[in-house]
């Protein structure tokens, strides 16, 4: 693939987040000089967002995956408005890679035909306070505060201390006090309800955000019932897997699978997706 930085024709690798060696070094060594479309400065470093042009093959591939993973009929006329690659503080990225390797050495997942650390690309929906990014209105204005769940993730990565913080007042955690991810964009959609905002350019559409993330699942535990107080899986397991039809709560079971992890270095926000729809039941 070609480097995602505009006007750069150097070759790049997906594992290095689409950067050529030159831009990879700038990101790691001088993030304030990195040519991001949006810069978010926190206490220790910068996060940079690179917008993926709609005409590129990469945008089309992500869009296709996102829409194919929308399996629950809970929204109409869903479309992606913008996709950004996320370039966090390099230390956060290296911590994730170190944990993934640690899990791999313990479980030998590559030897079983799986990815390193049983890594999966999953979705995480969340609230946000600031105006949604829209490439039509050019409102690339993020509030950049920790009070905004979306901006908090962009600045600091996923944080266990933020588990359960949401604008909807939800307290039910089927798989315990973890960070939740799902292979279905339509399931993650529900968790962004508190941040839904009317499109500034089309009053018939509403916008939300979602994260596409790398998650080192490792060896997942499969519980048979709800445990809201769970703060880690049993010994020998690295995450909790809520499978379809399992974990009943009253008369309700899981209709769509999800995963919970209990440490921040087991997951890494990869892409920031702004999308819109005309109506939704959730």
UniProtKB/TrEMBL annotation:
Residues 34-282 form the PARP catalytic domain. One of its GO terms (cellular component) is nucleus. Keywords: Glycosyltransferase, NAD, Transferase. GO terms for molecular function: NAD+ poly-ADP-ribosyltransferase activity; NAD+-protein mono-ADP-ribosyltransferase activity. InterPro entries: ARTD-AVP (IPR051712), Poly(ADP-ribose)pol_cat_dom (IPR012317). PROSITE patterns: PARP_CATALYTIC. Its EC number is 2.4.2.-. The keyword Glycosyltransferase applies. It comes from the Eukaryota. This is Poly [ADP-ribose] polymerase.
